Amino acid sequence: METPKTLLEAITFFSDYENCRQFMISVRWADGVVRCPYCDATKLTYLEKARVYRCYGAHSKQKFSLKVGTIFEDSAIGLEKWLPAAWLISNCKNGISSYELARALGVTQKSAWHMLHRLREAMTDETGKVGGNGPVECDETFVGGKVKNMHKSKRPKGVSLHGGGGKAIVMGMLERGGRIKAKVISGRTKQQLNPVMSENVEAGSHIITDELTTYGFLETPYNREVINHALEYVNGHIHTNGVENFWSCLKRSLGGTYIAVEPFHLDAYVSEQVFRYNNRKDADDFTRFSACLMGIQGKRLTYKALTQRPGVV
Ligand SMILES: [Zn+2]
């Protein structure tokens, strides 16, 4: 399969449904054999006109499309639009707004908003820990509007109204020369930092932090070096410049492209930026797009779940 290299080539390539179908098969099944999502059977008939497969197994839903079992399931929007949308969100450095996507694809802004959130779900990578191969810079940043000014019913649960003027807090853990992990956290006490650190950073890792004393009380053992920002910004290798660079990328995309991010959606925007950061090196646009598509399986995000999302962790 000739793979597209630019946005223009991707739009042309995926305007042919057969290319969408072949691409989806290559992403979903390593051996290239389509399997029934209900019974795993491979004895199937492809009904070209309806763009569905027919299974002969003894279960009720006998016909299924390639969207079943992915974040695209139940979407009326065709793969000819979904795949260019995935290309755009994977490769636009500062993200893409639902208004821009709506115009580019000819869908409503509401549909585009839902599409982008489903794609962010695909980009979310909860696996693995950082710190196995290098020191980890740990830092927090305050993001967004003032939660304390929001009406009580709209406030996300668990967000501390103390410190940072009630803004949401994001914690970043960057392995030098490797991946970053970032999470929205509800506060900076040791009870709030401990679980995030132990879930995301290998025990025994060498960590570099600012002077926030809470890090001194971490339960998981880490070798810690501290940078005192009041006195110095760079002390040899003891600095958090890498993670601070990530914060400026995140804030640029939040401030420029996503003008009004609800605090309870912040995690999704953070995941999107983490995805682009972790796929920035040695990856061309097609590789980044494919990495996004690798995350579409086994995930669902309905509009109802999206709009009723509970508070941040
Ligand atoms: Zn079946």
What does this protein look like?
This protein is an alpha/beta fold. The protein has a domain at 136-261: Nucleotidyltransferase, domain 5 (2-Layer Sandwich), CATH 3.30.420. It is built from 10 helices and 8 strands. The strands form 2 sheets. A 5-stranded mixed beta sheet has the order 6-5-4-7-8, with helices on both faces. Strands 1-2-3 form a 3-stranded antiparallel beta sheet, with no helix packed on it. α4 packs across α5. It is elongated, with a radius of gyration of 22 Å. It starts with 6 loop residues before the first helix and ends in a 6-residue tail after the last helix. Mean pLDDT is 85; it is low at 158-163.
In a few lines, what is going on in this structure?
By secondary structure, this protein is an alpha/beta fold.
CATH architecture classification of the domain at 136-261:
2-Layer Sandwich
User: How many alpha or pi helices?
Assistant: 10
Residue share in helix: 25-40%
CATH topology of the domain at 136-261: Nucleotidyltransferase, domain 5
In percent terms, what proportion of residues is strand? 5-15%
What structural category do the secondary elements indicate?
alpha/beta
Globular, elongated, flat, extended or rod-shaped: what is the shape?
A: elongated
Mean pLDDT: 85
Sheet with most strands:
5 strands, mixed
Compute the number of strand runs.
Answer: 8
* Spans where pLDDT lies below 50 across 5 or more residues: 158-163
Rounded Rg:
22 Å
Strand order of the biggest β-sheet: 6-5-4-7-8
Tell me the distance between the termini: 42 Å
Identify the CATH class of the domain at 136-261: Alpha Beta
Bound molecules: zinc ion
